[in-house]
Design brief:
The protein is built from 6 helices and 7 strands. It has about 170 residues and is α+β, with helices and mostly antiparallel strands. The strands form 3 sheets. A 3-stranded antiparallel sheet has the order 3-4-5. Strands 1-2 form a two-stranded antiparallel sheet. Strands 6-7 form a two-stranded antiparallel ribbon. β6 (about 165) and β7 (about 170) form a beta hairpin. The longest helix is centred in the last third of the chain and has 17 residues, at about 120-135.
Amino acid sequence: MTPLQLGAMVSAIANGGTLYYLQHPTAPEEVANFEPRVKRHLDIAPLIPEISDGMAAAVSYGTARSLRVNFNEEEILGKTGTCSKAGTRYGWFSRPTPRRMWGESSSVVFLQGGRPTFGPKAAEISGRMYRNLYDHAFFAAHPTLPADTAADVKRWEQRNRQSSVGGLPLRTG
């Protein structure tokens, strides 16, 4: 399973089973006019409580437990992954995002590097990111981005291009 497939699956878990086509808008106009496209509905609603228990266990005492070193204010569900290709290692961590934060979505942290790069390291970095977001009240209720025009999106991108989360720079382009 690739990191993008994991992100799509975790989003389906977060929203009750709707699997969306993965899309990547690259221009402000595309962002402003973005419309999610449903790929199919997965009949997983009865299984979500059991899946959630497994994802909670991964963070509590499994491969994603390093996340808790930096962040333990909220229950986090998650899944790690690791693979390698041609000597390069990849690690990722994905979690369903609670609706009160961003709606029915997921977040994925993806790393590329050498030997110390693996899923648990991505979970640890996720914990640092959540810590920084939490300390800056990002998880508190806040208004949604007014994206009715491409100009609004462009201003938002420019304002946030220099941001950082958990000491890591955010790249928006």
